[in-house]
Amino acid sequence: MTQQAAVKLLAIVHERRQIQLEELLSYLPEFTWNQVFSLVDELSRRKLICLRRQGFEYQLRAASLST
Predict the structure, then answer these.
(1) Which DSSP category does 24 fall into?
(2) From CA 65, how far away is CA 52, in angstroms rounded?
(3) What is the spatial distance between Cα 30 and Cα 22, in angstroms, rounded to a whole number?
(4) Is 54 exposed, middle or buried, given 0-12, 13-18 or 19+ CB atoms closer than 10 A?
(5) What are the two backbone dihedrals, phi and then psi, of residue 15, each rounded to the nearest 5 degrees?
(6) Tell me, what's the pLDDT at 2?
(7) Cβ 43 vs Cβ 9: under 8 Å
(8) What number of other Cβ atoms are within 10 A of residue 43's Cβ?
(9) Residue 17: left if φ>0, alpha if ψ -120 to 50, beta else—which one?
(10) Please, what is the average pLDDT of the chain?
(11) Which domains does the chain have, with CATH numbers?
(12) How far apart are CA 52 and CA 7, in angstroms?
């Protein structure tokens, strides 16, 4: 994944403040599910976003909102 993809994903998460993973995919149609999830994993490990499970879905939040 490119830095440009990471910037786009972070912009979406920060703009929305929180977003379901499945909804995020609709904002990134140029990427596969695997590419998006890989990027989410990387950004989560770097503590730039927070990934949480809610029931059967996953929600992303901007890191500053998760504390």
Answers:
(1) H
(2) 12
(3) 14
(4) exposed
(5) -65, -45
(6) 79
(7) yes
(8) 20
(9) left
(10) 90
(11) 3-65 (1.10.10.10)
(12) 20
